[in-house]
Automatic annotation (TrEMBL):
Signal peptide: none annotated. This is Zn(2)-C6 fungal-type domain-containing protein. The lineage of its organism: Eukaryota, Fungi, Dikarya, Ascomycota, Pezizomycotina. Residues 14-43 form the Zn(2)-C6 fungal-type domain. It comes from the Eukaryota. CDD domains: fungal_TF_MHR, GAL4. One of its GO terms (molecular function) is DNA binding. One of its GO terms (biological process) is DNA-templated transcription. It holds the Pfam family Zn_clus. It comes from Aspergillus lentulus. GO terms for cellular component: nucleus.
């Protein structure tokens, strides 16, 4: 057979039998495989499958880099243009051939664009948007990449106000000899309230920073000054003189300025460094007594955003972090949530929505000694009170407010207790459940001889009283049926009394509690004072009213509550105190009772000369003061007079505010009152 006849008898495709057997066919008619196997050889044209979808043309390497550089510039990150790349046909073809061999599946695309946490040289950056997560591994933050533009410094200076200069920050560090004393004070007075540091590792870092100043990073210097500021914030003048040789006010101002400058140097507003964030959190907690709530609300928002940028809103167990780092990030995140919740409450605002979009788990109730950086598993929780317990109790109180919320996502504000959607009986039931839970988990382990345990006990009871006061707020009296009104009044009066007793226990320094007063706010106190004055005015006379006047005297005797420069809310409360006292005296006369002796604090409010007071009233008043707070925790210590700390009250006559009874007749009066609390209360 000639070659031409063979080509005519051959096919361009395999026979059906060879295709089914998946063997090579010589495409002759019949093929040799079918002849040997004595099979019928039939050539059936194959059915074409679905046409492969043509991919869109891939952009060249140069175009891709140019697009990425534009994305970086949009986010304020400078990048050098890549001029040395030649977008030739050969490179494009090679790139396309390489891409053609890649398997483009939905799963691989998902892996490329899912959120990522990039950690490098102590800096953590969280990416949750697709463009950034694709090349997040190659991202280099300015803190890691080297020097940045001077505009970073200008932005931070603008944020912190006037950019005051200190010739040498290094000269402001204390001597290493007093470091052990500073650490002890921090562990005793600051750490239980602001549990964001792991003291064993931080103590080593702090000592190394003091002994080797050349090796100090900017973030370390920031947290060192924040540490000094936190310690000074808890000291009185005598203690400060003993430690530093200067007054508390001088040292506080010095370290507040030093911390601000150190945060500017650490580029706070652009930081991804966890240590810088810790320094900023300590700074926020220490300036509460000197910054307004409006300012603190903004500072808190900055901290929340910085934390989100570092991925603290995502639990470390989901990000593949070590148990130690996971636990420390949980502590910082939940402390920030509490700060934002607390400041927003004073201002009557909602906390940041960022805190509701988080999956960070609650920290464990463990001691610092239970944690170490090389651990492979988290330790079991401790039973009872640990240094972190107070922070966990705050968290449980915040989360419990979700049970009263009917919105989605659940609202986390005290105001949800006022909502009409939850019946009063159900509110009381939920509050009782919360109280029982805290009793079983914490209160039954409290040792009255331990100041921290006593403080935890007071804060739990204080929080429960506040929940009951908000749930039965007097602003609701106008719409309560008359048959239920007296019960509501009794609940408000009883819990306002308890709340003020707890405040005076802490502010009065009983049981060694004075070391925690630097973090006690006043907004809840003002509301409780108003509620008590409303009830005293309503009840007129009686043993409960007499005890209430003694308790109000205790509140006025606390110098940390009523300072020398009163806020408008202080002035209004003093005005109402005088009005209600005058009604009390008039009611006693009308009922034929002996006219009550005027207490010293009433004289002080009226601005009378201390020389005109009757000295015979001092001892009975002091004796009575001890009995008021005895019922709470068995305390029978007597608080010394503190009325000399009250400021001048000449502005009371010019204070225009309605009669206290108008709150029950006109609910709109509460709006003005809440504004005063927001302006004058401390968070």
């Amino acid at each position: 057979m000639t070659r031409s006849s063979e080509s005519r008898n051959s096919k361009s495709y395999s026979c059906l039998t060879c295709r089914q057997r998946k063997v090579k066919c010589d495409r002759r008619v019949p093929c040799c495989n079918c002849v040997r196997a004595d099979k019928q050889c039939s050539f059936v044209p194959p059915v074409r499958g679905k046409r492969k979808r043509t991919r869109p043309p891939r952009e060249g390497l140069h175009a891709k880099l140019e697009r990425y550089e534009k994305l970086l510039s949009l986010h304020g990150i400078k990048s050098e243009p890549s001029d040395d790349l030649d977008d030739s046909d050969s490179e494009s073809d090679a790139c396309m051939d390489e891409d053609a061999n890649a398997v483009d599946t939905p799963q691989s695309t998902l892996e490329e664009t899912k959120p990522k946490l990039i950690i490098r040289e102590g800096v953590s950056r969280y990416f949750d948007s697709a463009p950034w997560s694709i090349f997040g591994g190659e991202f280099q933050h300015p803190e890691v990449g080297g020097p940045v533009d001077e505009s970073f410094s200008d932005e931070n200076a603008l944020f912190f106000g006037q950019n005051e200069k200190v010739e040498n920050l290094a000269s402001l560090h204390p001597s290493v000899q007093i470091l052990p004393k500073l650490r002890d004070i921090y562990a005793d007075r600051v750490d239980p309230l602001v549990k964001i540091l792991h003291l064993p590792t931080f103590s080593t870092t702090l000592e190394n920073g003091l002994r080797h100043p050349v090796e100090r990073s900017r973030s370390l210097e920031a947290i060192m000054f924040a540490f000094y500021l936190a310690v000074v914030s808890t000291l009185n003048d005598v203690e400060c003189q003993d430690l530093f040789g200067l007054s508390e006010s001088v040292m506080y101002s010095r370290y507040r300025l030093a911390t601000r400058l150190a945060l500017i140097n650490a580029r706070l507003l652009s930081t991804s460094n966890l240590m810088t964030l810790q320094a900023y959190v300590l700074f926020m907690m220490c300036v509460r007594k000197s910054y307004s709530c409006d300012t603190l609300f903004v500072l808190s928002g900055v901290a929340i955003r910085l934390a989100r940028k570092m991925g603290l809103h995502r639990d470390g167990s989901f990000l593949g972090l070590s148990p130690f780092e996971t636990e420390m990030r949980r502590r910082i995140w939940w402390h920030l949530v509490h700060v934002d919740f607390r400041v927003a409450d004073v201002l009557g605002a909602r906390p940041s929505m960022d805190i509701t979009c988080a999956d960070t788990k609650t920290p464990l109730n463990v001691d610092d000694e239970d944690l170490h950086p090389d651990m492979t598993d988290l330790p079991p929780e401790r039973n009872g009170i640990a240094p972190i317990s107070l922070c966990l109790i705050r968290h449980e109180i915040m989360v419990s407010l979700h049970d009263f919320s009917t919105s989605s996502p659940a609202d986390m504000r005290w105001e949800v207790l006022l909502g009409p959607n939850v019946p009063p009986a159900k509110k009381d039931h939920i509050i009782s459940q919360i109280e029982d839970h805290l009793e079983r988990k914490y209160l039954r382990y409290c040792d009255p001889a331990n100041p921290l345990h006593t403080f935890v006990s007071i804060m739990i009871r204080f929080s429960i009283c506040k929940m009951k006061l908000v749930a039965h707020n007097p602003r609701q009296f106008a719409r309560i049926p008359p048959k239920d009104l007296q019960r509501e009044r009794d609940i408000v009066f009883a819990n306002a009394t308890k709340l003020l007793e707890y405040v005076t226990l802490v502010q009065g320094g009983h049981h060694g509690l004075e070391k925690y007063t630097w973090q006690i706010g006043t907004s809840a106190l003002w509301n409780a004072m108003l509620y008590m004055l409303i009830e005293i005015r309503h009840r007129r006379t009686g043993p409960e009213v007499d005890r209430s006047w003694q308790l109000i005297g205790l509140v006025f005797s606390c110098p940390r509550i009523f300072g020398r420069t009163p806020a408008p809310v202080d002035t209004v409360l003093r005005k109402w105190t005088l009005e209600v006292w005058d009604h009390y005296v008039a009611a006693s006369r009308a009922e034929g009772l002996p006219e009550p002796s005027t207490p010293e604090y009433i004289d002080a409010i009226r601005g009378r000369s201390r020389s005109t007071r009757d000295p015979t009233r001092t001892e009975p008043l002091a004796a009575e003061r001890g009995s008021v707070i005895e019922s709470s925790l068995g305390c029978n210590q007597i608080q010394s007079n503190g009325y000399e700390s009250l400021p001048d009250f000449e502005s009371l006559d010019s204070c225009e505010f309605p009669d206290i009874l108008s709150f029950e007749m006109d609910p709109n009066e509460w709006v003005q009152w809440e504004q005063l609390v927001a302006e004058g209360g401390r968070s």
